[in-house]
Design a protein that fits this description.
By secondary structure, this protein is mainly alpha-helical. Helices cover 75% and strands 0% of the residues.
Amino acid sequence: MLKLSLPLRLQLSLVIVVGAALLNHHAWYCLGVYGAIALLWAWLLRVPIRRLGGLLGTELIFLSLLALPLGWERASFLLVRSLICLVTMNSFLLTLPPHSFGIALKGLPVPAPLKENLLLAGQYMEILLSEVTRMQRSAQLRGLNGTAAWLRYASAAMIGALYLRSLDRAERVYAAMVTRGYNGQLPIDSTLRPKERFAILAAWAIAACVTLTSYRI
């Protein structure tokens, strides 16, 4: 895995995502540049291909339902651009060590309250994913193997049970935080090193050049 600090990895991922999201429509050449960068980023982070492919497949199904009514030409560009953004962010999230989302947020140049909300949301997402993993393991022990079997198992009743279990566990986590002195503020302030700042500025400069070029083609 690429030896970069978590805040730097997060900011570089955001540079790729924001740059691709601001591309002019039908700028396929510039989109191809971002696609190559996203694949290189996933390779540098050593992302598990099977887990990445599973996440992308599920996410693209929902995105296609939203994009296809816009027309085939527009929808195809939006789907490819969304795929690039998803590859980038999923590569970051899948290589993120457990309970380290707050560390990654330290160097993000946003207000402290927003950092705290993002950190709590990240913790609750970890709780939700862990509950999904436990339910999948339980389904496999009951003989429900394979994707189709899991989809049958995840009926409306089970989704409701997943929500209740996640909510109950989130309340217990919050109570534990309060017991340990949580008062609504988290010590998440940090600064990037000079070399990391230079890397971020260089990445933003490259992204700005590629994105602005898409409006001149």
